[in-house]
Amino acid sequence: MKQYFWNHIKQLLFILFIFLFVSEIKSAELGGNLIISDSLVINRTPDTLVYNNTFYIKTDQIYDQKIHKNKYEKHLDKYESFWVKLIPSYQKIQMYGSIGLVSLGTGWDYCNNKMETEIMLGFIPKYDDRRAKLTFTIRENYIPFTINIKDNRISFNPLTTGLYINSILDNRFWKKEPERYPENYYKFSTRIRFHLALGQRFNFDLDGDKSIHKSISVFYEVGTCDLYMISAVTNKYLSPKDYLGLSFGLKLQIF
Amino acid sequence: MKKIKHILFFLTIIMFHSCDILDVHPYDCKVTGRRNINENSIREIEEKCLAKDTIRYVWTGDFQRWYDDTNDMVKRINSLKNIDFVMCGGDISDFGMTMEFELIDKIMQNLNVPYVNIIGNHDIIGNGYNTYKTMYGDVNFSFTAGNTRFICLNTNAIEFDYSTYVPDFQFIKNELELCGENISRTIVAMHAEPFGDQFNNNVANIFHSYITNFPNLAFCMHAHAHNRKISDIFNDGILYYCCDSAKKRSFYVFTLTPDGYDCELVIF
User: What value of ipTM does the predicted structure carry?
Assistant: First the structure.
């Protein structure tokens, strides 16, 4: 124990000696910072000397990472980390899929990228209606499998499942029947639609030097909505193309 | 090479556009099938019945998602002889979705005879009103088959506010003025009957007394109730014929002769 202590003193004295008398020592080849017992950080500067696996450093290169934070700083850290978690991790563009001709959305990945929650804004052109319409979608995806192809640069999801709720943003459509109707007159909502979709997806990792996105995914899906399902289940006449809809699009991964 | 890529890209877009499986929205009002069906049918009916003194037509309605039954009904109507046209009393859709209108027209196109369709309350909800107007035309219309004038009216008052006239007395007034001497009989068809839950019942009596001004009003026809019923609603001898819904698998065949008319029930 005594010897151990003495060794440390010797080391410290030696370091101090170096710093006192050596002002310019050329740096050795060692990358990054050296962290000792997760709290002591040594910044590697061009004048850090490494000789025979021993570091010769200046005292101003040593600082404690566990900086004491006051109440305000602690709260700020917590506050920031909360909002950072809410930054969406991807953007999405989709065509068709019973939520609009083109839909733009953003979302969050979690559970090892197996779950996704996203919000989308869809656009329905005027067609033969009085006006064009917007729709809003909240969507939950579950992607159970990932197959890696080509050094993990390309991956394939053989099955993607999605449940989504779509609301058409137009005052002619009601969530609940207006009061002018007798009770339970129509028994459904024209505004809110529940959808289910199954699909597949290819993911391509992108080069950070050339692209602003981490990866890009190409997907397609086949889906249906509650009212289509009711029509399909109660009739033999309907063929799949009457109640199923194809959609396709791109998912742009930010981080 | 770049040009070929561009061409391929546009071809794919066009291919997807023409593809049935791409659905924009259940209420997109994107009509890909026939338009102005009533107008075209009326032209056909009027030509066909011009010199006829006996007219046979079908009165049906309320298909509301019963596609299988509607399909069977079309087959049954096609098996009947001497039918001149089919009149449908509305509610061809259940949710007012564009797909429903197009599916029903696809089934009805198999008819050997033209058909006209009156707007029902289910055809109005959402943006079904605009889909109806695109596919079938005006909600109030009339036509002449032989010497008989058919007045088809929108009576789904509860679906509208007061900015839309339901029933449209101005239209009825114009029709009264239009009726010439060649008209020997009038039949009024509608979706919802007077004193029903859809009708503007404040004017039910006025409506009835106004339509009795038509030359020789024979009877009225309506749907909406889903159960076949013949009632003398106003106790004045003018009968209101209500057809079954497609689910109940029956329809009426009316035969108009110079002396009167005959009503048969066909069960399929």
Answer: 0.87
